[in-house]
Structure formats: structure tokens, C-alpha cells
Amino acid sequence: MEKRPGTTIALRASVALAAAWLTASCATAPQAASAPGAGEPLTLQETSWTDFEITDFTAVHSPIPGDDEGHLIFGAIPISAPEEGLAPELAAFLGRWEGYDYSPPVRKDSKGVLVIQEISEHGGKACLWAGTNLQYPFWIKEIRFRVIRFGGSPVIEWQADLSGAPGGTGMTAPIRLGYDPETGELRGGVNVPSSGVLYGAFRLSRAETFPVYPDYARYLAGKGIETHLHDTTRLRYFGAGYMIYLPEGYSDDPGKDWPLMFFLHGSGDRGDNIYLIAKASPFLMIREQGPLPFIIAAPLLKQTRQFAYFPEPYLEGVLDEILSDYRVDRSRIYLTGLSLGGEAAYRLALHRPELFAAVSPLAGFNPEFSPEALQGGYYPFALPLDRLKGIPVWSISGADDTVVSLSLVRSTVEAFRAAGVDIRLTILEGHDHDVWTDTYADPEYYDWFLQFRKL
Length: 455
Fold this sequence. Notes:
The protein is of the alpha+beta class. It has two domains: 9-212, no CATH class; 223-450, Rossmann fold (3-Layer(aba) Sandwich). Helices cover 18% and strands 29% of the residues. It has eleven helices and 20 strands. The chain has helices spanning 13-20, 88-91, 216-221, 233-236, 283-288, 312-325, 340-351, 371-375, 406-418, 436-439, 443-450; strands spanning 48-51, 62-63, 71-72, 95-101, 111-119, 123-131, 139-150, 153-161, 172-180, 185-192, 197-205, 211-212, 225-229, 241-245, 258-264, 295-299, 328-338, 358-362, 393-398, 423-428. The strands form three sheets. It has an eight-stranded antiparallel barrel with strand order 4-5-6-7-8-9-10-11. The chain has an eight-stranded mixed β-sheet with strand order 13-14-16-15-17-18-19-20. Strands 2-3-12 form a three-stranded antiparallel β-sheet, with no helix packed on it. Strand 17 (328-338), helix 7 and strand 18 (358-362) form a beta-alpha-beta unit. The longest helix has 14 residues, at 312-325. The radius of gyration is 24 Å and the shape is elongated.
């Protein structure tokens, strides 16, 4: 039976809206008297880092021209004019900044928008929005910071609770940012006083590119991307559902079958928010560049200790559901996944080699070659590697990956080659664990799949 638009659900759609409704405190006109530091210099303990929520979405985020759904994050927050006599190097901090944390193991995974509304010789006020997926940020804060100086150059500093960030330790520590006149950027990081080390490599610029959507489900549906619950309670034991993309023209010809790309996400997207899959996946290509000639299906795995990896019964069950509900060309079923999903792509292909015309794991590995993976709940591939003979495999990894090491990837590839598998390895220089952003945004990647059919 074919899925109909009326069956679309909104798993955790409220999360998107909750993340978007900031408080009016950053949307109201600033007053000079409210800025800290108008008198004596502040101590770090006098800075603040507080949550806030919004009552008026458009009072905080401004529409992006040419985009019916997207709004510029913090694009409508007011910024005060510099105080009379304020040093130029301090006035340079005022305004809207956005950028990335360049720290390993995944550079540029965390993004942020910082709007510095007020600044004086001693302190000021700002609003911060940050997350690995800005539609679901881990920080939405109002900040009162102090101004300190290093070598005569001003630096803004505030005390931050780091527990909300990925891998957060629950500690609080100062965040420091300084202005670099040569690059026109704010740069800095998290300072842990006990070690004197700066963690993080924040670089924020004046570019205006980060959007947020008041109704993320509607935005994705406009691109042909929807979410569905599993049809059976057996599958819902493993995960709530899957994300699905139907290519342009799918509904026009009821007699036409389409290639299927089955995508398996990484460990960071496990949980109950299926919309996270749209970020690091082939859905990235559809969102940012345009349509693809595939049905794309991506199951969501729960985040529990019980599911440290994708169980085969879940993957095979989801595939059977997809093949039953959609018009799939059985000669053109393709498999890809990243990291956790890369390992699962190898494993699923070994279990169902009769299904797949081509396979491409990103940062994929065989746990047999990793004591850490085996201790973490993985197990070696249980089936002979030569079961993938006759199936083209393309392994892609980053030269600087410290999560799934290049040696682990090489050992996996060499073992498949020794078993007679036609496997190609591409190592992306200048990439760490994140090879998916560039790979899934490359049209030639999808062309590679489409040249293969299952005979």
C-alpha cells in the first residue's frame, strides 16, 4: 500500500518551535542604563548566562529575501549605537556575528549566532544561539559579559554553563572572545581556569547565512521530505519512524518505479527527534541544492545503551516496510551511512547482499579491528566478507579523522579486498570525522550510484 500525504506526522515538531520562541528581553530596545559595567570594572562572578524564550518570532528573526520559510537567526534583534567616546576597538564588537567551533573531532559541527547589543569600557549585553543543528539549538541565552584586556587588546568574557553542549561535563567555565582586526572575526574559546587551556576554537564573522524555520516540518515537506511512523509495534521498539523523500514526478506516473537510497545516520542523531536526520544525510543535498532522482529513506534509532548500533532485525524490517509501501525499482537499491551508520551499512549489506546494487559507507569500519568498538557493544561482522563480491563498494573517510581512525578504515577495506570485494577507498584531505557534509552535497556522488543495477 502506498503512503499518502495524510499520514505525515510531526515527531517532536514542538521542539523546533520551543527552540525558536526566545524571550522578549533580547527583542526589546536596549537601554544604556541596563548595560553592566557602566561604572566599575566587573568581576567574572558578576557576569550572567541565562535562558530566555520568545513571544514573537518575527520580532527576533528577520525574513530572508527569496526564502518563503527561512528567517535569519537574530536578524531582527536591535543593536545600540556606540556610546560617545567609546574606543573603536570596543565599538567593533557591536552587531551580529555567526560562525563555527573549529575544534576536533568534528570541525564546524557546532554553529553559533551572537548578537552583541551593547558594550561599554567594562561590559555589555548579548544574545547567543548555538547548536550542532540550529533548528534545535543546545543554547539560547541572554548574556551579560565583562570586558578585560590581554596585551592591551579588549576581550569579552562571561561565565557559561557547559552542560547543554554536546559532551558537556556539567562544569561552568569562562568563554572569551576577542576581535581580530586582520580577519574581521571574533575569535576565542572556553577557558578552564584549573588548566589554563582554551577549549574550542570559535570563529565568528559578519556573514548572514544561518536560518531558522518557524515550522520546520512544513519547510521540509515543501522539499518533498516527510516523516512517518513505523507500521508495526515491533519496529517502534527500535525507533519511532523514518524520514522519507519522494522524488519529483513520483505521483505523476503510478506505473513508474524509482531507485531507493537507504541511509543510516550517525550516533549523534539517535533519539526521538527524527528531524535531526535532515542535517547530515542525503537530505542535505535536497535542502540546499535541489531534487534527486531517488526515493530516500532513513530510519531513526533510539538512543539507549541497548542500541549501541543498528540491530539487523530493525534495518531489515524497515527495508521490508519501505519496499512494501513505495514503488521501488528492485534493481536499483543503494545503501549508504555515516560513522555508526557506516558500520551498519557494511553489516546490512552482508546480511542482504541480494538487495543492493551499490554500497557506500562514510567513516565505516569493521569492529573486528577496533578493541574500543568491541568494548562499546559492537561485534565483528558475523558473515563472510566475500558475500559482497559483485557489489561495488565506495568507502570514504577523512585523513584527520580521530573518531574512526584512518588505520581502522584501511584495515576494513583491505579485509574486504582480500575477500575479493570490489571496494574503492577515497581519503579526503583536510577532513576530520565529517566527510558527509561535502560528500552528500556533491552531485557526482549520486551519479556514481546510478550507474549500477542489480542483475
